[in-house]
């Protein structure tokens, strides 16, 4: 496993736009938070859970990732996380400035649709 992890770290050096999940101290900010939910979606949670809506969202809400994610396979191919193969694979996030800018822009577009 250590040998495969070293291969993944070498791949990451050659692909600096992507970051290995094991090397990220925190990933929560890469996912949509309560205050970033579109108004209509937040109102659905409030209508269902009343004063516990934020806690309910934090507990069992499905948070969409703001950046592209992929699975780095043992043969160093990137796959969709829904197609997770057998073996020691690694989740990776595209965290370069362009990806973060596009995700923020897309998030603003989604927010503005519900105003």
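^ structure tokens above, recovered residues below v
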């Amino acid at each position: 496993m250590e040998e495969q992890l070293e291969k993944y770290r070498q791949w990451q050096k050659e692909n600096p736009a992507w970051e290995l999940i094991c090397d990220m101290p925190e990933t929560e900010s890469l996912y949509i938070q309560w205050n970033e939910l579109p108004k209509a979606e937040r109102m659905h949670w409030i209508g269902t859970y009343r004063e516990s809506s934020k806690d309910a969202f934090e507990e069992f809400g499905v948070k969409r990732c703001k950046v592209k994610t992929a699975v780095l396979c043992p043969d160093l191919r990137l796959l969709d996380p829904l197609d997770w193969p057998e073996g020691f694979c690694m989740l990776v996030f595209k965290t370069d400035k362009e990806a973060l800018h596009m995700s923020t822009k897309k998030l603003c577009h989604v927010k503005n649709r519900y105003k």
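The longest helix spans residues 97-113.
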